[in-house]
Amino acid sequence: TWGRVNLVAKKLAALTRMSTELADDAVINVADDLASEIAYAFAKKEDDCGWNGDGTSTYGGIIGVKAKFVAGLASFVGAVDAASGHDTFAEIDNTDLVTAMGKLPMFARANAKWFISALGNAMVFERLAAASGGVTRTEITSGRPVMSYLGYPVVIDQTLPAVTTDLSDLPMLYFGDLGAACKMGVRRGVAIKTLAERYAEYDQIGVMGTERFDINVHDIGDATNAGPLVALMGE
């Protein structure tokens, strides 16, 4: 069946400044460099809202994936508990991972991926890969992080948990088709403008960026059926 997914644009804004001397003397176009930095900051905030939004003004009212799973922890099929005592990345084992995989419906497997922080990737996927049989010295020393596990791509996102401490009853990593679980809409992309008068008393130039977007996490399942995205919860 088709559901109605409502997106209401929220505005992100960033404001910084640079000296007129820097604008005059820089070899590169500093305004372009600042625009890239602002776009990166917006992208990070979008990720943070989508994963960690709690519905407060900090996240523009967006309720992210984490909050949905925590709210349904006691009943959601897709909130998969790790083995007892496995509440840090160093304790997660292959059984925990395949148990989470097993909860994902078949319709979501074609585009399924692992979603985890860089720290989590090192302490879970790279640790398990290094400990598995048949790993050659070249693979161990190549310096490349593990970017797939059990045949599915690993996506690194630094707004996901990146701690070595207890994550009991919290999502540690995710597996599934993120695009089928939530929708992101951009009403207007990143717009940059300079403000010649904003910091005139300092002989500086203001640079402001804005964007309008929304994210709706609309399907992570319920007490009967897992959705297209499952979470491995610390236990």
What does this structure look like?
This protein is of the alpha+beta class and 235 residues long. Helix content is 29%, strand content 29%. It has seven helices and nine strands, in the order E-H-H-H-E-H-E-H-H-E-E-E-H-E-E-E. A hairpin with a 4-residue loop joins strand 7 and strand 8. The protein is globular, with a radius of gyration of 21 Å.
SSE diagram, text form:
Blueprint: E1 10-19, H1 20-25, H2 30-52, H3 65-71, E2 79-81, H4 94-103, E3 113-116, H5 118-131, H6 137-141, E4 148-149, E5 152-156, E6 171-176, H7 178-181, E7 182-199, E8 204-217, E9 229-233
Parallel strand pairs: 2-9, 3-5
Antiparallel strand pairs: 1-8, 3-6, 4-5, 6-9, 7-8
In short:
The protein is of the alpha+beta class and 235 residues long. It is 29% helix and 29% strand.
Percent of sequence in beta strands? 25-35%
Helical proportion, percent range: 25-40%
Uncertain regions spanning at least 5 consecutive residues:
none
Structural class: alpha+beta
How are the strands of the largest sheet arranged?
Answer: 2-9-6-3-5-4
Q: What sequence of helices (H) and strands (E) makes up the elements?
A: EHHHEHEHHEEEHEEE
Per DSSP E runs of 2 or more residues, the count of β-strands stands at 9
What Rg do the Cα atoms give? 21 Å
The dominant shape is globular
Mean pLDDT: 88
Largest sheet: 6 strands, mixed
Spatial gap, N to C terminus = 34 Å
Number of helical runs? 7
